[in-house]
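Good morning,

Attaching, inline, the backbone tokens for the sequence recovery test we're adding to the shared suite. The designed sequence is right after.
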């Protein structure tokens, strides 16, 4: 093929693998204009213009808009090209970070679902659990008629202001203090927290009495009372916070009254020589 050969828009569309209408649009916006216009106003493209097509296609693949590509084309210098390409790298790096966070969120929900598949919901157990990363909110304020939903909204606002880099789409779970658990005073959590592997706080490594029930958010179905009786009967005592978690929630359950609730109360043996608040020092 002769290097100075000219092609009609239809022929060039075939060689470039760009639809004819797209080539006409590129011409209208000044991104890729024909080499020659005939007396009949027909457009003719040269073979070497395929290199321009490759540049456009490559830069589009890198995420650049047509406006950005035209700006680079019209004012090409090594310095501008370097600045534009560095900007695209920064955008890609940002997307990679976003995808990594999204993957962690997906894995959190997936692991909750898989773990729940192996649960005996009728069992009461005492287990040692290692520390787990969480994002912890402040103490809930129920003054002036505020309810649990008001406190939850404040929790989201607090975390978004304090940790703008934290993804607030992770599951939100609840904490009750030792004294409130013992009194079965369970209206409104003392604190909320995100189950988030990037959290700066920790649910403490400790012994936990663990039980399950089904219900809506805040509806523990008597699980705490059963656990307190179980704790006492097995020679343990409550020594710290209770953590209320929802491994199966609206993500995978249609009926809100059928969410799977896991209650974990920090305990120690009654004979253990431990500080008064051992294992619960998160409040």
């Amino acid at each position: 093929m002769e290097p100075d050969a000219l092609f009609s828009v239809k022929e060039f569309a075939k060689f470039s693998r760009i639809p004819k209408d797209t080539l006409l649009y590129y011409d209208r916006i000044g991104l890729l204009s024909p080499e020659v216009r005939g007396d009949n106003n027909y457009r003719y493209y040269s073979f070497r213009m395929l290199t321009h097509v490759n540049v456009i296609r490559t830069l589009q693949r890198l995420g650049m808009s047509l406006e950005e590509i035209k700006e680079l084309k019209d004012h090409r210098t090594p310095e501008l090209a370097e600045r534009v390409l560095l900007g695209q790298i920064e955008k890609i790096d940002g997307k990679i970070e976003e995808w990594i966070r999204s993957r962690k969120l997906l894995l959190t929900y997936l692991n909750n679902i898989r773990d729940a598949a192996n649960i005996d919901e009728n069992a009461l157990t005492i287990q040692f659990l290692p520390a787990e990363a969480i994002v912890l909110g402040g103490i809930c304020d129920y003054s002036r008629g505020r309810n649990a939903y008001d406190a939850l909204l404040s929790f989201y606002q607090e975390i978004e202001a304090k940790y703008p880099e934290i993804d607030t789409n992770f599951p939100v779970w609840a904490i009750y203090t030792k004294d409130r658990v013992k009194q079965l005073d369970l209206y409104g959590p003392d604190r909320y927290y995100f189950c988030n592997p990037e959290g700066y706080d920790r649910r403490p490594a400790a012994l936990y009495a663990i039980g399950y029930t089904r219900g809506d958010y805040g509806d523990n179905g008597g699980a705490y009372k059963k656990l307190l009786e179980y704790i006492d009967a097995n020679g343990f005592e409550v020594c710290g916070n209770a953590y209320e978690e929802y491994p199966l929630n609206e993500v995978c359950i249609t009926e809100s009254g059928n969410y799977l609730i896991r209650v974990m109360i920090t305990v120690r043996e009654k004979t253990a020589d431990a500080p008064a608040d051992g294992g619960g020092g998160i409040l």
